[in-house]
Records
---
Amino acid sequence: MITRPDGRPHPQLLPVENYLLNSNSNPDSRLEWVTGSVGARLIRRMAAGSLPVSLRAVAELRVTSATAYVAALLIESGAVPADDFSRVRFEAWLTGLLLSIPDTDDRPTVQQYASWVVKRRFADAGESTDPIQRLSRARRELIEIRRFLAATRVAGFTLEDIPQRLLDEYFVRRGDTAHQLVRFLRWARTQHLTQLRSEYRPQLQRGPSISDDQRWEWVRILLSREDISLAPRVVGLFALLFGVPVTRIVTLRRSAITVEGERVTISFGTDPVKLPPRLADLVRRVIEAPPRSPVSEDTWVFRGLRPGAHLANVSVSAALRPAGISVQQGRVVALMTLSRDLQPAIVADLIGVTADTAARWSTHTGGDWAPYPQLRGDAASY
């Protein structure tokens, strides 16, 4: 697979070969991947010299699961320097977007904003953010910026001299989609590129649209339904029981789980949580399950299909949606229940949110824990 036209192994692809040979995954799965997969054909193209051994080269190919898989394999094996492939893919996509902006005078502005603001958000997001969602948000924002700048030119104006009334009309016409312009317009104003003003709409505090009884019914479904994929079931249970965001659950590392005989604990935050027997059994099955990928490693509790990757948020939603389960709505109910029944500091330690976040949820749910520190101190004296 890594042999060059001269019959010698491609030196830059030797780490890929070593990674595959030393993987603890099923040998038959690895052989099947090497001999028949689209990803393996891409590696052969690299060995033949028709495709550079780089993340940028892979990012410029059509977006498929195979290209994402090969990028992950190159990174995990050490064949290329570690990098955020979603950011590299974004940079490749940005090149095409800039060329599609009708007025060439607008291109430097968009490029500057993308480089100074959007790319920085990739770096700040960290591993707890789903890379697919991160890339999708960046694309949607810049596409809306391109649309707005083009509409401004058609109206006979530039970003510098467009009247406020035209922006207001644009927001009315485009609806919620136009609010993706807000960050760009604020940035443009700080750079003295425009006089336009645009404010975030006030965020309405919405309660959940389901009851606590419905949440528990979903918990019972996930505990018993064997026709639902195991990993998404357990992710859903963690969200419904503890109020932890799916994005954080899928990025749990194997070290977050401790198994001692019949006792299984998990650490979302500072304090480990002992799992009830039925959930503990499901967690054991997750960590003992064979790898889903021919070259998977054991870094994550919930392993994804790509080398070194965790389970994707969208995979969880796709698995649970046919059963009528909305993890997001159920998670909000769980978090509200915890915040009402427990002191904010305990909630923060239990599920790994900040103390301020826990306090806000407690206030929202009507919890009154002002005397709690004194009560806890009194109890400690007995």
---
Amino acid sequence: MLNFFPADHILPYNNQKKAESDSATRRKDPNLGLNVPETPEDTHQDEKSAFHSRHHGCREENQKIRPGQSLSITKIPSRTEPPNVSPNVQVKRVIGLRDARLKTNQKKDEEAKAKEKKTINGELIREAPQMPSNMFFQHNTALVPPYNVLVDTNFLSHTVQRKLSLLESMMDCLYAKCNPIITSCVMAELEKLGPKYRLALRVARDERWQRLECDHKGTYADDCLVDRVTKDRIYIVGTNDKLLKRRIRRIAGVPLMSVARGKYVIERLPGAPE
């Protein structure tokens, strides 16, 4: 191989480079306070760090974890996760109406357990309503003349529309003496209905009819009539209301009187004339 430069030009350049590298590789020992030359391994590491700092813009020694330095790892959010949403956020859930943690459901469970009282033998105690002593199966022996007839607002209104006499039509239907009874809640209903029912209100205010005072709140007469005939089954209920008739039919031994075309009709009364 041909040398284009003489040896005297190469050697001083090599000596100068070696001197510069020796001066650059001098480091100070912190324990002894002396300048100690670095080992070839340290020199190689410094050259590698310088290369990375020139070409990559960072030093390798900064990437190492030094003693006493904490490591912090930053989580990179994925594309599927929405931005600015913490993964530890708890979403509130609605409790169902039948959840056992609700106080209303707990109260219902306690009431149900209280009802299921058991005897020593383990049998359930079933409470059946006591039937009146005047009932012989479906026949009510307490219904004898004079008949007590509880009338409601609907019955009085239909009586006025059909132009019937209240007392005379009852006696023609039952062939016996009758006693029409009007409660205070029926009177209050007629007064609230206004001038359209003024004739029915005039019939209800007749002094010949018996009055019964109510101790309940409000002016709803259907519940009052059902409660009265359930406690004392000595009445005949006069009504044309379909819903009230349906409720009365569930009570054994209570006849129903209604307004038909030109007369009164009776049902569920044994031995009544047809």
---
Amino acid sequence: MANRMKEDEKNEKIIRGLLKLPANRRCINCNNLGPQYVCTNFWTFICTNCSGMHREFTHRVKSISMAKFTSQEVIALQEGGNERAKLIYFKDWDPQRHSFPDSSNIDRIREFIKHVYVDRRYTGERGTDRPPRVKSDREDSNENRMADSYHGSSRSPPYEDRYDRRYNERLSSGGRNDETNFRYQVMKIKVLYMLMVTTREVLATLKW
């Protein structure tokens, strides 16, 4: 029992010493002076309001004055702390574009914690959802040349070939009536197209 008390006193003394470090004197989230809690998910020193918001995200929070810390937790805090956490979670943080929330603005704190620790927006990590890639002028030019070459020949563009293959694959799994109906519809489209072309040529001749 006595050894346990001595260990608790030792751990508390170490934590109080860590609180005196410049980076740990203020809450890592809202910059409020004198943090009284530790978030053990990220080993950061935080204020009372921020501790409540962290709990909303099921992050584990411990009071420095009320809770007991194990030796393993103290070691983790020594290796972590606000300075270490900023290197990880604020790596891409731009103070010119972003600002820390006010300690009295609960909604802003909630949003901040979600962006920083849940969404990990400023860690520099690349997510699986990539934004649409903008095509270069060269790629557009190449695609246009390919489309022109197909239009100038009897071949169909590659996307039409893929469509025909997929459609034929679906037909092969259906009944014979579906295939007959499909061919009939294709023939109708071809006839209509030929009529349109012929009409256009006749009109062009009359205009001439």
